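Q: Convert this sequence to structure tokens.
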Amino acid sequence: MISALEEFLFAFFLSLLAGLSTTIGSVIAFVVKKPNPKFISFVMGFSAGVMIFISFVELLLSSIASIGYQLGVLFFFVGMSVMFLIDVVVSHKYEFENSIEILVKDNGSYKPHLHYGHRHRQHFRGEKKNLKVEKTSLFIILGVFIHNFPEGMATFIGTLAEIQLGLLLTLAIALHNIPEGIAVSLPIYTYTGSKKKAFKWSFISGISEPIGALITWLILYPFITPTLLSALLGVVGGVMVYISLDELLPASRKLGKEHHSILGIMAGMLIMALSLALF
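A:
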């Protein structure tokens, strides 16, 4: 039988793994000259499909089955409301494509070039341009850091409820954290020319997820009962749906054509449906 400590450590490990996927995006920003926006669009759509499917088929249904329809739906909208309040209080704009568009423009369209030599640094000479990129970098980092807190909670709660569910949430969150890592690293790498600084801030933005998991454990774990856990599953479902609708899908649609986003969503839902059927 798994002890409480082992249960916590595994849930914390998954939230750490999901959060630090931002560093994978940072590495991609250093080694890939032109990350394909269409592929990123598909990946973000895939992640949204996974999250939406899990939220309605697993999280919300499990909550309703345990605490009833009214309470299950109530806590689902509590999760969405919490994310909405975070957006209102801490306005954020860190979509991957906006980061690239600010950095490099060619004839009115953006093309990502990640190995910035002397020519690209010349592009950012001048106090106003440097200040704009610096502010953009800090804004991206702050937005990702704050908005990753609930994702760490989601991974942690999902794992406590069911290990398989935790693994699926980890996969979905990790997939969309990779583009976020690219979005954090690109402006900093361009502005400073330092891979070390870009990687450091990408790491810091991702570490907020295990911090969120740790805070959840410290505050809620002593009081967790089957009823509370079921309520939290509803909250997590609302959080995941909000993230998908507010962040992933708009970014996916802007980065690629409509069919890239839709195919990603369908693929994500199909993979999750097959996974749940098989396991």
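The beta strands are 105-106, 109-110.
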